Write the structure tokens for this entry.
Amino acid sequence: MSPAEELYEVTLVVNGVPRSATVPARRLLSDFLRHDLELTGTHVGCEHGVCGACTVLVDGRPIRSCLQFAVTVDGAEVTTVEGCTRPDGELGPVQQAFRDCHGLQCGFCTPGFVTTVTAYLEENPAPTTEQAREAIAGNLCRCTGYQNIVASVLRAAELRQTPAEEASR
Amino acid sequence: MKPAGFTYHRPATVDDAVAVLAEVGPAGKVLAGGQSLVPLLNMRLAAPEHLVDVNRLSDLAYVRADGDGVTVGALARHADVERDEAAYAVLPLLRDTLRHVAHPTIRNRGTTVGSIAHADPAGELTAVLALLAGTVTLRSAAGERTVTAADFFTGPMSTCAGAAELVTSVTFPVPEGRTGTVWTEVARRHGDYAVCGTGVVVTLDDDLRVAGARAAYVSVGPEPVVLDLTEAVAGEMHDAADWPAAGRLAAGRLDPDDDIHATAAYRTRLAEVLTTRALREAAGRAAGATTAARREASGGDQ
């Protein structure tokens, strides 16, 4: 590679806020979020698309941010785990459900689960246990054994249907 | 684990894309969804000098379905094809198969054309394209050509596409006659690569007797394997045919390898069972004339 790597200005709307940085083309979206925008909620596990920890929403759809160059998605709307809160900044329904159901232990994989489940419940607001299990099949967790994560998905579905006062009980 | 540096190109039109490909030649690689390529780059198993990002070619982000088949442009994501109702109406096999391709998160970004151009012998869509005797359209600065799936796949991860060519679309034809289709596979976890998978097409005549039975397989050979199993069940009634005989015929013709996931003997046995099961189910669907009815319904809309 030539010593002077060409740089690109990349602008994304991250959690509703326009953010830009100037980066080489090989900057992965995961590193763009963490290093350039200092949004370290998105975690980087395997860096080859297997673990799901780096999952973010791009234009509403969950994708692996470690398998995407930031420059490719220039101009897109991105939602990270930091954006999965309620408008008042309190825990969003999926985050609250993971807390209620003890759906995390070390928490490393959790950002990927929260974003994946947030998008999934938009598509299927009332999943069965079996569907909940399938919805998280692309995310790895080494702590919980998944039982409490499945329970969290079902709880999140309930919380989304109930008004905010119960969610913050 | 970061990709090596590369010169980045993001053409805005197909003409620009093929011009860049012609210029950079074998030093270039096309980037679409990146779900197979970027892992290779991250692990530095591949380090192309030039990356030609086709994600701006929104003209290629289409799924077109009519009574003859489904044509998928190079920028249609797996999820777009999976969710396309018109495509499902004429060719339910596409959605049925796509549900087994990796995880939804991967399907949101990965492209159907990209996975065919990647030609992974474990890729479900490569097998479906071969099963249906589909076609692949390639563009270069010199013009356009369309080749059959049989000519396109030349080996594991290799195709007849030249360095200066961009695969712009693939066409999955609707099988002729009264047909039923099924995809089934066994994987260690949902969404993982299959240990063995098969897609089948069963064709019935007007008396609901078996006129054709074909199957394609993933993970049992270096490239998509397509078998014609008609001889085992020809002329038999759809609900009384000796499907296990067709399964045995398939098992006898496949020659899978051992690997870390399964022995060759286990894979062969899986192929036999899955073939039997899939053919029986497909015959039931053909007898229900679901596909024919859907095709008529869709034809009426055209």
